[in-house]
Amino acid sequence: MEDVGIEIPVLDLEKGIEFYETVFGWTFDRERMPKQGWATINGSIGISIFQTEKIRPKGLNIGFRVDNIDETLKKVTSNKGKVIKEKFYYENFGSVAVIQDCFGTELSLTSESA
What are phi and psi of 41, to 5 degrees? Predict the structure, then answer.
């Protein structure tokens, strides 16, 4: 699993994948995440392209891999951060949670463990 994940919202999945493959030379794996495109850059950065109805003002979503999401969520809240979306399981990917840091910046946490 990649150490850092970047999620890019697009209004048209196929057009978005074509754009990023052409511009950056990335190859998206549709088997790993059939409803998204997934590319691994330099072995440690994951790029996900996902289709959405509307592009939110925040744009990109950045995710960090952690060993234990539950322990990390405790550290987030004890350091004046917030849990925006509690831990959930994403098929073929692992566990995910969404947080805000102490300044309000939204980030995702990912873990291979449940």
Answer: -110, 130
The structure's pTM equals 0.69
- For CATH 3.10.180.10, the residue range(s) in the chain are 1-54, 66-114
Give the CATH superfamily of 66-114: 2,3-Dihydroxybiphenyl 1,2-Dioxygenase, domain 1 (3.10.180.10)
Full DSSP string of the chain: --SEEEEEEESSHHHHHHHHHHHH-----TTTSTTEEEEEETTTEEEEEEE-SS--TT--EEEEE-S-HHHHHHHHHHTT-EEEEEEEEETTTEEEEEEE-TTS-EEEEEES--
| Closest among 52, 75, 53 to 64, alpha carbons compared | 75
pLDDT digit string, tens, across residues 86-98: 999 987 778 999 9
